[in-house]
Design goal:
about 140 residues, alpha+beta, Immunoglobulin-like, 6-stranded antiparallel sheet, 4-stranded antiparallel sheet, globular
């Protein structure tokens, strides 16, 4: 009986974990034209993602509970990091971090973990399992 209850509980946890964090890709028409997005909804925080105009500007963004937090951030993968100062978007209302290197985004699609550290001490551990398809679609779109 214990094994059944444990298995049932473990199955529920695995099911919840696999659907709790899902990377998504989308293209939308904004005021300036087509815009590509790859993002993940971090339950209890908000959304983290990348956006780009095909062949044009690229940015990472955080849309969540970091009100009043510094806009300085460090994005870390295994053996690779990117630091950026950001600002609150007049258009979207989220924190945007421009000059997003495409090689960093490529590495996100192949990595297992991403950590975002905001200067005020907020640290986000972002799951990357299942990100490769959404990230590759984003890269294809961003390159134009």
């Amino acid at each position: 009986m214990r094994r059944f209850v444990f298995s049932l509980f473990a199955g529920l946890l695995l099911t919840s974990a696999s659907t709790a964090f899902e990377w998504k890709f989308s293209e939308t028409e904004e005021d300036w034209g087509l815009t590509c997005f790859s993002s993940i909804d971090l339950k209890g925080f908000g959304t983290l993602g990348f956006m780009a105009v095909p062949g044009g500007p690229r940015a990472a963004y955080l849309d969540g509970d970091i009100n009043g937090a510094s806009s300085k951030s460090k994005w870390q993968l295994e053996g690779l990091s990117w630091s950026a100062g950001g600002e609150i978007s007049d258009y979207f209302g989220w924190h945007e971090y421009y000059e997003l290197p495409l090689d960093f985004v490529e590495a996100v699609g192949a990595a297992e973990a991403l950590q975002v550290i905001i200067a005020d001490g907020v640290t986000l551990d972002v799951p990357l399992n299942g990100s490769s398809t959404a990230v590759q679609l984003f890269l294809d779109c961003a390159k134009g």
